[in-house]
Design brief:
Radius of gyration: 44 Å
Strand content: 15-25%
Order of helices and strands: HHHEHHEEEEHHEHHEEEHEHHH
Distance between the termini: 35 Å
CATH architecture of the largest domain: Up-down Bundle
CATH superfamily of the largest domain: Outer membrane efflux proteins (OEP)
Strand order of the largest sheet: 2-3-4-5-7-10
Number of strands: 10
Number of domains: 2
Largest sheet: 6 strands, antiparallel
Low-confidence stretches: 1-40
Length: 535
């Protein structure tokens, strides 16, 4: 280990859990003339003997980014939103269409001009074209259709006969279905995708903050367990010393009983600390999606706590949170989607007034046949070009044009359906806006609370260190007074319990500060960086 990391670790351990007073007391009882062991080395020895897989915070963050259930759910929501947007865009994609139908029938003839006693007709109809809808509601269509007919009628001038029809039509809504109504689904889906992207970012930042907070909780829990183990070991030494003093007549049986009760309590504290440490490790394993490797029972923090994070003015943090918080961005996009649907419903609540028009052409071609009427020698023959091609040329050149134009009006009486839908959409907009406003207020409250937590963290840690130092001195003095007969075993037990409480308060102060820094990073959408800060 590099020397600067070793010095830093020793300094942290010294400030963290200076349980060496107890070790010194035990060492003095065993060998009064010997020098007490160093506090940091005693705690380091207990920590080194603990089982588990050492793991760095960066490793857990990388694993949680791809394995955390919350992140995976957000990814699935984003994929669904992207698919929904693709579907809405597909409504405005060009569409090719076509059909082919073949029909045959036989009809008995009752007319002399039918051309045959039984008319046998075969018809083949084919149509092909393309159509498209525009985001403003316009519908365009272009098509080409042809019908091929064969018949046994002697009066049919063409068999087979080709009738060709081509058209280009347009339909434009002016009220219902126009503009915002036609593109409401697309704009809502675009905002839905943006909201899903913001929620995905928020989920990842929440996972990062949770992993970081639980990592430092694990760090504190491991050292709390080490303190409990040291105190338990010293309690065993203390019990042995009390028994020796009782045998010498220096103390009574009650002193020995107090030492025994104290040792039993410390054994229970060790078990409780182990349970809590295992629970914190299990929580980390659930977040990152894997258990400790190589059969280890728990994770072990390999990193040291960061230095005291910088505290920025609350006004700067509020501005950054309002601009970068992904949860706010997601709610804002939801408001945009609701407004788009409301605008569309407003237009769809109006009467329908559609303009339509079209141009096209007709064509006729086929195989000419001679027509001879009964009782006459006159022969009729139409001069019509044969095959399908000439008919298509006539349509293309509009030799036989057609056109149409008109308007369609539809006025629902009462207007309850469209009006009710529009009102429902307006209510959804109001709901989304109120949710956004509520989130803004809650965000401000959270930022202010975490900023206060972080700002007071340095003072809280300083007081916790002072409490640990004072508790260590109390235990030292209490042990000296106990050996000199000026104090009781009960008082030593109480002082030792105070030391354990002081160590736990320091652990809690460290975790609270780390949680506040991680929460501010999450609330500001990554803008706040604890190590560097921003002006």
């Amino acid at each position: 280990m590099p020397m600067h990391r070793l010095r830093r670790r020793n300094a942290v351990l010294t400030w963290w859990f200076t349980a060496g007073a107890l070790l010194a007391a035990g060492s003095t009882a065993a060998a009064p003339s010997g020098a007490p062991a160093a506090p940091d080395s005693s705690l380091a020895a207990v920590l080194a003997a603990m089982p588990g897989e050492p793991v760095a915070l960066t490793t857990l963050l990388a694993e949680a980014g791809g394995q955390a259930v919350a992140a995976r759910l957000a990814d699935a929501d984003y994929t669904a939103a992207a698919a929904a947007l693709r579907s809405e865009r597909g409504a405005f994609d060009p569409e090719l269409f076509g059909s082919a139908t073949r029909t045959g029938d036989e009809q008995p003839a009752a007319s002399l001009f039918a051309g045959a006693p039984i008319l046998r007709n075969e018809t083949t109809a084919m149509e092909a074209g393309a159509r498209i809808s525009l985001p403003i509601g316009t519908e365009l269509s272009a098509s080409l259709a042809t019908v091929r007919t064969t018949t046994n009628s002697t009066y049919a001038a063409l068999s087979p006969q080709y009738q060709t029809f081509g058209s280009l039509t347009v339909r434009q809504p002016l009220l219902k279905g126009f503009g915002p109504a036609a593109g409401a689904g697309l704009r809502a889906a675009e905002s839905g995708l943006a909201a899903a992207g913001a929620r995905r970012q928020a989920a990842r930042q929440a996972v990062t903050a949770e992993v970081e907070a639980r990592y430092w909780e694990l760090y504190a829990g491991e050292r709390d367990l080490a303190v409990a183990v040291l105190i338990r070991d010293r309690a065993r030494v203390f019990l042995g010393e009390a028994r020796l003093r009782a045998q010498a007549g220096l103390v009574g049986p009650s002193q020995v009983a107090s030492a025994e009760v104290f040792l039993a309590e410390q054994e229970q504290r060790v078990l409780d600390a182990e349970d809590q440490l295992d629970q914190r490790s299990d929580a980390l394993a659930s977040l990152v999606g894997r258990r400790p490797a190589q059969g280890a029972t728990r994770f072990r923090p390999a990193d040291e706590p960061p230095p005291q994070p910088r505290s920025l003015p609350v006004e700067s943090l509020l501005v950054a949170a309002a601009a970068n918080n992904p949860d706010l961005q997601a709610l804002d996009e939801q408001c945009r989607a609701a407004r788009a649907r409301a605008d569309g419903a407003k237009w769809d609540a109006r009467p329908r007034v559609d303009l339509f028009g079209g141009i096209g052409g007709n064509g006729l071609s086929g195989t000419p046949r001679d027509i001879v009427f009964p009782g006459s020698t006159d022969t009729l023959r139409y001069d019509v070009p044969g095959g399908f091609g000439p008919g298509w040329a006539q349509v293309r050149d509009r030799d036989y044009p057609w056109w149409n134009a008109g308007v369609i009006v539809s006025l629902p009486l009462g207007g309850r359906a469209g009006g009710g839908e529009a009102e429902r959409r307006r209510a959804e907009v109001a709901r989304a806006e109120n949710q956004l406003e509520g989130a803004r207020r809650q965000l401000e409250e959270q930022v202010r609370a975490q900023q206060r937590e972080l700002e007071r963290g340095a003072r809280r840690l300083e007081l916790a260190r002072a409490g640990v130092d004072a508790s260590v001195r109390q235990v030292e003095i209490g042990m000296i007074e106990y050996r000199n007969g000026r104090s009781t075993a009960f008082e030593v037990v109480r002082l030792t319990a105070d030391l354990a409480g002081a160590q736990q308060r320091y652990s809690q102060a460290l975790v609270r500060t780390a949680r506040a820094a991680a929460a501010l990073t999450q609330l500001t959408g990554g803008w706040y960086q604890p190590a560097t800060g921003r002006e």
